[in-house]
Amino acid sequence: MCGIVGYLGKKNASEILCDGLKKLEYRGYDSAGIALLNGSGFRVLKTSKRIETLSKTVSLEKSQSKIGIGHTRWATHGEANKQNAHPHLSEDGKFAVVHNGIIENYLSLKEELLKEGFNLKSETDTEVIPMLLQKYYKKDIKEAVKKTLKRLEGSYALAILCSDYPDMIIAARQFSPIIIGLSETEKAVASDITAFPEDINNVIYLKDGQVFCPSFV
Ligand code: GLU
């Protein structure tokens, strides 16, 4: 299990996310990635090298996105490579997910999704989550999240973005830590308080089974 960061605010999300991931680097990891949401959908950048490599790629992009999520992975299912690194997207590209923990029943969920025609591309347990969100999303985001979480057995800290809601990060936990950070102009999520941007002055500790949606809506 490694680390999660998420940011929504007035600053450049890509820089904040890379800074946050660097602060989680001490926990160890084997690969890392971020997803940035902008007008044309998600831009996903990943590396199986150091966070510094990710930061350099990210800064070349000159992204202006104000919302994104990031992850440092400690592989439990599937090799440590770029394909398996998080964030993972739904097939329709509407959902991006980062996950810490283990989805114990992922094999049966994967089988079900493959039968229904979903095209899963990684070897991870995590990828079933964005696919389930796509399956259950019928314009009601709360319902889709609720139905998806109900299907998951095991442990998770999750940060989820949906391209239909460019002002919202969904955070959820079950036996893995995730915290919410707030300031007047920013919302953040992280596995560890050290990864928050400096202006965050209010922290909410999610309890097991809780879902929280920091948003500007
Ligand atoms: N089980 C997930 C994977 O193998 C998440 C691992 C983690 O917590 O970093 O991709």
Describe this structure in words.
The protein is α+β, with helices and mostly antiparallel strands and 217 residues long. It is built from five helices and twelve strands. The strands form two sheets. It has a seven-stranded antiparallel sheet with strand order 3-2-4-1-10-9-11, with helices on one face. It has a five-stranded antiparallel sheet with strand order 5-6-7-8-12. Strand 7 (154-162) and strand 8 (170-174) form a beta hairpin. Helix 1 (13-24) packs antiparallel against helix 2 (51-61) and helix 4 (128-136) packs across helix 5. The protein starts with a strand and ends in a 5-residue tail after the last strand. The model has no long low-confidence stretch (mean pLDDT 95).
Helix content: 10-25%
**Biggest sheet features:** 7 strands, antiparallel
Number of helical runs? 5
Distinct small molecules bound, one entry per kind:
glutamic acid
What is the averaged pLDDT score? 95
The SSE string, one letter per element, is: EHEEHEEEHHHEEEEEE
How far is it from the N-terminal to the C-terminal residue, by CA?
A: 32 Å
Query: Overall 3D geometry?
Result: globular
Kindly estimate the percentage of residues that lie in beta strands according to DSSP.
Answer: 25-35%
Strand order within the widest sheet? 3-2-4-1-10-9-11
Structural class: alpha+beta
Radius of gyration: 16 Å
Could you give the count of β-strands? 12
Low-pLDDT segments, ≥5 res: none
